[in-house]
Structures are given as structure tokens and as C-alpha cells.
Design goal:
By secondary structure, the chain is of the alpha+beta class. It has a single domain, classed as Cytochrome P450 (Cytochrome p450, Orthogonal Bundle), CATH 1.10.630. The N and C termini lie far apart (51 Å).
């Protein structure tokens, strides 16, 4: 085949389900090899190599977020999103992010390890042993929802509502075509809930992240209602979706590699490094985009001003020139340098990366200590999305030590 043949492969990541095609990773390998800056349609380029993705991520002056970051971004359809930190560039982005940086830094997140461990143990206490159940429903979905709700200070909310709202927001990221009445209603419920809780905190603050947001100042002014709302929604969705798909993807990968699972069960000190490999392998968030602010080059190839560059994180995370000839293999002993792209890079590095790492590490420590082996009890089902790649359901059977 030639580079021209790629045009016959329907390479549009904006179509929900693109990440689930059976030849997905083969397609990414071909893009890296044959067309690392592939022109999908005029003005839209797919960026597939690790170093090119880093270059775009690290230079917000040349590649901005304010003109859209989602493949099906409402901004690119002429619908602005007020207060969204995802769609901000420095210096405004930096000032707003500083409000939360201290709460989600590695040292600050460490103080929630005990509550996270208690939640993980509580969930593991309730799962059946020796019979099939859905790992997503009972374990990987509830844990991050409970953790982020606790941090925000809304732990009394129904966790099923949080999951439903988060799923609807992810569905909304697929563009206007995905906005069914149910999706719109669920997003509206979340907006109403968060607005109500923000109003309560303005009247009487407590010791939680929501109180921090309603009292925070940026450049001498209080955050607007829209900024508070969008930051809360970002935390709920990112804190849920990324970690949920990481946990379920981790369980699937270790079930498919029982030798590596057994080695980890006998060497818990290796779990932090294994978590990094799981993030690389799973890559829960598959793509984000940037817009070229002027004519430039990426990896020595010309880019025109206004071009929308879609960064294929899963491709960068399997780049053979960076991770070696075993880049397409799962290996929990893989060195943690060079760093993966699973949490993004640059100024928009995932705010909750340290929290996601802690949740994954603590959960895996507790999980392996109780259940060093488990079997898949059927085929996983997958989320069809233009943003995330992960299991909707994962049937498993656990076996005690």
C-alpha cells in the first residue's frame, strides 16, 4: 500500500467508535510510519508521533487551545464555552489553574491516600467471589466517583447520578449529533446540582474544593459563576472518566497477562511503575487538539495557520522510536522514562494526574492482596466515543489468595 491508500481507511477520529476498530493500532502504526502529519481533510491534521505531539503540547504560543481542543468541539462549530479551562491559553489559563494546583499536587494528594484506601477496601468487601460480576459497575466506576465527590464536598450526592452525568458529558463531546434529549437532560441535571451546591458554599464555606473555588480570586477578582461551574464539571468528568477507564483497562490487561499479574502480586513495590505502564497501554483519553496560530512546522513538516492538529495520544504512546521495538507490548517492568503521554503534556497536563496515579496504585495494592488471580467471564463491551477509549462493561470472576 501507499500513503494514498490511507485515504480509503476512514481515518476520522471524530466518529464515535473509531478507537474501537479491530485494526486501530495497526492504523496508528501506519500513520507514524507513512504519514505522521496526515491531512484528514483540508485544515485538519492527525499528529501520530510522540515527539511531534510533545512539540505541539509544549508550545501554546504556536498551537493554541482557545480555538478548540475536542475533535467535535462546539467552539469549532461556532458555539463558545464560557469559563472552560480546557479552552484557555496562557496567561489566563495559568492564572486559573493556579487556583487548584496546590489541591492536586503530588504532596497535597498524598493526604487523601488513607480515605482512598478505605473506599477501595469498602468496595472490595462487597464484590462476590467465585461468580461473575461487572468490574466496571462494582469497582472501577464507583471508586473515582466517590473520591472526586469527597474532594469537592458533595459526597452525599448519589454516585449513580454522578456516573450518569459524567457519561452524558462525555457523550456530548461527540458533537451536536450526539446530543439526545437524555444526554441534554443529564448534563442539565449536573449543571443544576453543581450550581446549587456552589450557591450553598457562597453562603457558608466548608473545607473542600468547591468552597475554595467560590472564594478564590484570580488577578484580584472572584471567579465568575461560569468559571466555578466549568471547573467543577471538569473535575467531575476528568476525575471520573480517566481513572475509571484506567482501572478497568488495568484489570483487563493484567487478566490477559497472568504472568505479569503474578509477578506484581509478589512484588507490590513494583506497582507504581506498573501503573505508569497501564496508563501508557490503556491511554484513557485518546485525543485532544490544538490550532496553529500561524504558518509553522511540526517535525520538519509544514503546517498552515488555522490548521487543527489532532494529537493521537495512543499512537504516541506506542511510538517505536521512543519506547523501542516492544512498544506494542504490555510490560509492567518497562522503565518509566521516557514519560508516556497518557495524561497529556505541557501546560494542559492533566490536573488530576497525581490523584489518578494514587487511586490506581492504592486500588491495585488492595486488589492484588485479596485477589491475586481473576478470570474474564465474557467479552468486554466498549464505550463508543470520540474522546475516551475504555470498557463499558468488564465481566470477571475473582479468586481469593
Amino acid at each position: 500500500m501507499t500513503v494514498a491508500d490511507l485515504a480509503n481507511l476512514d481515518l476520522d477520529p471524530g466518529k464515535p467508535g473509531f478507537f474501537l476498530r479491530p485494526d486501530y493500532y495497526d492504523v496508528l502504526a501506519r500513520l507514524r510510519s507513512e504519514a505522521p502529519l496526515y491531512s484528514l481533510v483540508p485544515g485538519v491534521r492527525l499528529v501520530s508521533r510522540y515527539h511531534d505531539i510533545r512539540e505541539v503540547s509544549l508550545d501554546p504560543g504556536r498551537f493554541c487551545s482557545s480555538q478548540g481542543v475536542l475533535v467535535n468541539d462546539p467552539i469549532r462549530e461556532g458555539r463558545p464555552i464560557e469559563g472552560s479551562i480546557l479552552h484557555m491559553d496562557p496567561p489566563g489559563h495559568s492564572a486559573l489553574r493556579r487556583v487548584l494546583n496546590r489541591e492536586f499536587a503530588v504532596r497535597a494528594v498524598a493526604r487523601v491516600e488513607s480515605p482512598v484506601r478505605a473506599l477501595a477496601r469498602e468496595l472490595l468487601d462487597q464484590v462476590p467471589v467465585g461468580e461473575a460480576f461487572d468490574f466496571v459497575e462494582l469497582l472501577s466506576a464507583p471508586l473515582p466517583v466517590l473520591v472526586i465527590a469527597e474532594l469537592l464536598g458533595v459526597s452525599d450526592a448519589d454516585r449513580n447520578d454522578f456516573r450518569r452525568w459524567s457519561d452524558a458529558t462525555i457523550a456530548a463531546a461527540d458533537g451536536a449529533a450526539s446530543m439526545s434529549e437524555n444526554v441534554m437532560a443529564a448534563v442539565g441535571e449536573m449543571v443544576g446540582f453543581l450550581e446549587g451546591r456552589a450557591a450553598e458554599r457562597r453562603a457558608a464555606c466548608t473545607d473542600d474544593v468547591l468552597s475554595l473555588l467560590v472564594t478564590a480570586e484570580v488577578d484580584g477578582r472572584r471567579l465568575t459563576d461560569a468559571e466555578v461551574l466549568m471547573l467543577c464539571m471538569s473535575l467531575v468528568v476528568a476525575g471520573n472518566e480517566t481513572t475509571r477507564h484506567l482501572l478497568s483497562g488495568m484489570a483487563l490487561a493484567l487478566a490477559e497477562h497472568p504472568d505479569q499479574r503474578g509477578a506484581l502480586a509478589g512484588a507490590p513495590e513494583a506497582i507504581p511503575g506498573a501503573v505508569e505502564e497501564c496508563v501508557r497501554w490503556v491511554t484513557p483519553i485518546q485525543v485532544f487538539g490544538r490550532t496553529a496560530t500561524g504558518a509553522t512546522e511540526v517535525g520538519g513538516r509544514r503546517v498552515d495557520g488555522g490548521d487543527f492538529l489532532v494529537m493521537l495520544y495512543a499512537s504516541g504512546n506506542r511510538d517505536e522510536t521512543v519506547f523501542g521495538p516492544t512498544a506494542d507490548c504490555f510490560d509492567v517492568t518497562r522503565p518509566t522514562t521516557p514519560p508516556h503521554l497518557g495524561f497529556g503534556f505541557g501546560v494542559h497536563l492533566c490536573l488530576g494526574a497525581a490523584l489518578a496515579r494514587l487511586e490506581a496504585r492504592v486500588f491495585l495494592e488492595e486488589f492484588l492482596a485479596r485477589f491475586p488471580t481473576w478470570d474474564l467471564a465474557g467479552e468486554a463491551t466498549w464505550v463508543a466515543s470520540s474522546l475516551v477509549r475504555g470498557q463499558a462493561t468488564l465481566p470477571v470472576v475473582l479468586h481469593r489468595a
